[in-house]
Request: fold
Amino acid sequence: MKSKRNITNQLAVYQAKSGAIELRTDTKKQTLWASLQQMADLFDTDKSGVSRHIQNIFESGELGQKATVAKIATVQKEGKREVTREIEYYNLDVIISVGYRVNSQRATKFRQWATKVLSQHITLGYTINRSMIAAHYDEFMKAVSDIKMQDYG
Reply:
């Protein structure tokens, strides 16, 4: 297991009808990170179920633990005091694998969303995330311009 990664404060959010779950992003590794509790919330299930799925993912060799788990120091309130604990976070590969194993309505919605995005990307060759474009409009327009220059260059 890798320990203490530098993870930015940027957030990516999977929006569910019942609310939003915040997931940490790591722009250097181009991934998301979620704790056991965040995945349980995301897929509307219990932590023990998520934990069992993760254990099975690693035991089956679907994913390697060293490449997909990071320990991140997190400050928690315990009574009146603040305690720093190292919490295990799992990357996007684990989140997706768990999402395809959990049996809940919210996990089904996640699978439908993920399958739609993947299908669009495969059939069209690109995927559009309107909120990311809006947040990084100048960079997006530069990328479009670069592509046009390659086509006409």
About this structure: Confidence is low (pLDDT under 50) at residues 1-9. Helices lie at 36-42, 47-59, 65-68, 92-99, 105-124, 130-135, 137-152. The CA atoms of residues 40 and 46 lie 5 Å apart.
